Amino acid sequence: MESPEYEAFEQTGPNECVVMESVGPWESVGGDIKFLRLAQLKCAGLVTDGSVRDTAVLREYGFPVFSISTTPRQGPHVHQPWEANGVITCGGIVVRPGDAIIGDQDGVVVIPASHAQEVYDIAHSREIVEDIVKTELATN
Question: Could you tell me which InterPro entries the record lists for this protein (predicted)?
Fold first, then answer.
């Protein structure tokens, strides 16, 4: 039987993010081979409250990876994922299928799908105001 983890990978469309709950922060959720498949699927990114391996190769894949840490260790052999596209807790935050995942060099936020447009509108308005302030500061 296929692993729910790989089932989730195959269901990931271009520009979608995979969020993986780990059995522990220092346990690897994957590395080179596993994430090669996500790169092939044009995944927008990976977020986990666990660790990842093979970071030099992961950088070459060109999609962002947000993890607690890195590790040279393989993941646990006895803990297997139980489901794909279920509700999880990642880093203490509840994540549901369809939630908006936004990340940059400062971190990751989860926006419930039911509020995504409202949050986008607020953030976009703030960006406009910040651009105006930056322009004014540049001319002074």
Answer: RraA/RraA-like, RraA/RraA-like_sf
Sign of CA dihedral 30, 78, 22, 25: negative
Tell whether residue 53 is among the known ligand binding residues.
yes
User: What distance in Å separates the CA atoms of residue 7 and residue 11, rounded to the nearest whole number?
Assistant: 6
Each residue of 102-112: pLDDT tens digit? 999 899 999 99
Is 131 annotated in a binding site? The answer is no
Computed from CA positions of residues 81, 48, 32, 54, in that sequence, does the dihedral angle turn out positive or negative? negative
Residue appearing with tokens 């509108």: 121
Amino acid at 35: F
C-alpha torsion sign, points 76, 79, 85, 88:
negative
CB 20 within 8 A of CB 50: yes
- Beta-strand ranges (E) seen in 10-87 are 17-20, 45-48, 51-52, 65-66, 69-70
pLDDT per residue as tens digits for the range 51-61? 999 999 988 99
When computed from its CA atoms, the radius of gyration of the chain, rounded to whole angstroms, is 17
